[in-house]
Amino acid sequence: MAIPGSGLAKGLAVTLRTMTKRSVTAQYPQAQPDLAPRTRGVIALFEENCTVCMLCARECPDWCIYIDSHKETVPAAAAGGRERSRNVLDRFAIDFSLCMYCGICIEVCPFDALFWSPEFEYAETDILDLTHERDKLRDWMWTVPAPPALDPAAEEPKEIAAARKSAQKTLAARAEAPAEPGESAEPGGPGGPGGPGESGGPGEGQA
Ligand code: SF4
Ligand code: SF4
């Protein structure tokens, strides 16, 4: 049989215990929360990597990614070569009022153009203002944390190995070529390594 008043005593004991503990309430916005580095705050776009392949928009379960583009003709890299066409991004927007932060778009992007940013301060009073365009998505790239460092014992990633090999090949070819008077080799310039005239650049050959 319960002693009369024991329930009240138990309740007061809980109250006393709680009163003597340190408060865990975060004083936001005066104090910023300490977020985990992989927090899913917002999606950032690195538009230089986007080839307008449309995979993200097709795979998004909420259909909240809007992409517009047009095709552009790239002249042949060498005389007698074939012209190429490439996609040029005109619009990239995400409606965050529909997005469910599943991360599928980021997972499926084959060109590393989408990233999670921990930024979360983009609340709006009008739901229509939650559709954010490419400039805003691009700005959020600056808030994306750096990826964790590679394991020193891990194999070199194939992309880095391929880039290093290609850079070494270019340097060796340049060292062997006799310098012509008035010639200036511009790395990354038109027709140069990585320049727009070289085949295989993002967005090329997708006609
Ligand atoms: S996180 Fe999911 S819902 Fe949001 S835009 Fe990407 S795929 Fe669509
Ligand atoms: S999947 Fe990546 S590269 Fe393709 S359209 Fe989307 S962001 Fe651009």
- In terms of quaternary structure, the protein is single chain
As a percent range, the share of helical residues equals 10-25%
Note the beta-strand portion: 15-25%
Average of pLDDT: 86
Task: For the record, give the distance between the C-alpha atoms at the N and C termini, rounded to a whole number.
Answer: 83 Å
Order of helices and strands: HEHEEHEEHH
Strand segment count: 5
How would you describe the shape? elongated
Ligand names: iron/sulfur cluster
Poorly predicted ranges:
185-207
Side-by-side strand order of the widest sheet: 2-3-5
Q: How would you explain this protein's 3D organization?
A:
- The model is unreliable at 185-207 (pLDDT under 50).
- The N and C termini lie far apart (83 Å).
- It contains five helices and five strands; from the N terminus they run αβαββαββαα.
- Helices cover 24% and strands 15% of the residues.
- The chain has a three-stranded antiparallel sheet with strand order 2-3-5.
- It is an alpha+beta fold.
- Bound molecules: iron/sulfur cluster (2 copies).
- One iron/sulfur cluster (SF4) is lined by residues 60-62, 64-65, 94, 99-105.
- The site of one iron/sulfur cluster has 13 residues, from α3.
- Residues 188-207 have a biased composition (Gly residues).
- [4Fe-4S] cluster 1 binds at residues 50, 53, 56, 109.
- Residues 148-207 are annotated as: Disordered.
- Residues 41-70, 90-119 form the 4Fe-4S ferredoxin-type domain.
